[in-house]
Predict the 3D structure of the following.
Amino acid sequence: MIKSSIIAGILTIIFYLVFLFLYLQDVIGELMFLCVLFIGLMVLLLSLFVFRKKCGKKRYISIAVIVLFLLFCYEFLLLGFTTPTHLVNLYVEPTEAIEDSGIFLLPVQVITIRNKKEFEEILTTRKEDVLTITKLNNRMIYGNKNRVILSWFQTTLIEESENNVKKYLGQEDERLNNFFNREQISGDSAGLNLVLSGLYKRGKFINEIPIAVTGAINEKGDVFSVDYIKEKIQTTERSGISFMIVPSENAEEVAKVQNELKTNVEIFDVSSVDEALQIINDLNEKY
């Protein structure tokens, strides 16, 4: 009995995964994907009514109905993520969290485009600021939907980043707090930069060279990967900064971007705050 119930659940999940795969490969759209799940759910409900007097079959079908209903509810949210057709990443001037530190943040402004008119308007009015234009596919839309749902059940990335910076530094800093309070700030990619800025303010190192820094951190000072590496490398070069520090987890992506763009920026990858400090000290001794 239990074995049969498990099989019913597995078969339902396989049915779902087949059409999810077709959706992620852009073979079908979100409406077709949801319609298939809805039709499957209706067929199961009809079967449940037909076999309502047969306890064995009724139990297996009920399991399948519950599984497919939960999956349908989860995927139904796709309808709210399909409007934009493109993402445009715009150039934003690098800034310092601590003035004269030489440790530059690399903000990225992202604009969603919903139709051809908006697309043409962006290219006309913001042509010089455009770094990259990405046409959204189903895989990107699905990933964005999952990230949004995940964020509902945990603290935001910016809150987590702020807590990690404060824990690593051991105390709060008014200037860094002001940075986190900016309305346009999002994500966790400023973590490494802010820790280095805080250490600079305390006199832990001297820096006389402009260096672009990006990377997420934990409270122990370990450095983790970030998004928009290509755009951040473009921003670094466009702003005239010669050196850049990135997470080691992004090293492979960095190599591909450098090969593609033929940039002149010298990029160093690190896995910890201590490694970043060593690179900054070495650069200052050399130059």
About this structure: The chain is about 55% helix and 15% strand. The domain at 93-107+155-286 is CATH 3.30.230.10 (Ribosomal Protein S5; domain 2).
